[in-house]
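Review this:
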Amino acid sequence: MFSPFDHPRNLTREQWRARARAIQAGLEGLTIDELMRGARGAGAPHLGTHGHRRGGYDPHQPRVPAGHSDGGQWTDDDQWNEHPLVRARFAAAREFPPIGPLRIARILHRALKIIESHRADNLLYDLFDRPRGTVSMLEIDGRTFFGSNSRLPLYTSRDRAEADAMREIIKRKYPDIPGSNDGEIPMNALYHAETNVLLRAAREHGGSLAGRTLEVVTDEAMCNSCPDILPLVGVELGNPTVTFIDHRGRLRTMRNGQWD
């Protein structure tokens, strides 16, 4: 049976569009529990309806702000994550409210459609009409930024120069990290789509993403090198809070040079 959450290798462009529609339908049918795990039966620990282990307590689950009829009660409604009173409470604690599962589904569905269109416009398919490489995207103040790995034709000489410069900074500050060139692990992550989209966005904002809370969607899974390098890149770009969401809905959030 065809599953849109598998990774097919021999699909036409129209079949990829159908896959995107199937992913949308699949996400709309998932429970909150499944959305928080990121995949059906992916082997993740069993989570409760608020994204924490059953029997546990999640202090970050939002409450309805005081002044409303349900004020003070726990809620799964994503709208309260964006409410000024909720954000102010987390800001005072130097934390950020979690991204709700419904918002994750909306972000992922919309971003995958945009990425698919970007691929089609730039012919990012091989001779067998399969997607080439990895593409990522994020939005800042209504503007969309795309990133790609260094083997795709949209990766420019400026992209490589910025990645090389970041590599030198990280080598100097963290001399114990192996990988002296762009092809060695884990430094190769500097030339991947996740890093590229952050560098491009920072380029257009004076070299810094400080104070921002961002979501980066990527149409492939995160590699084994990225978890080691991306938090260090984030620190150098002003320490934004960044949540990475892959094509299957799996997510990781980084801030302060580490993963939550």
Helices lie at 13-29, 32-37, 84-92, 101-121, 157-173, 193-203, 226-236. The longest helix spans residues 101-121. The chain has two domains: 13-92, 101-259.
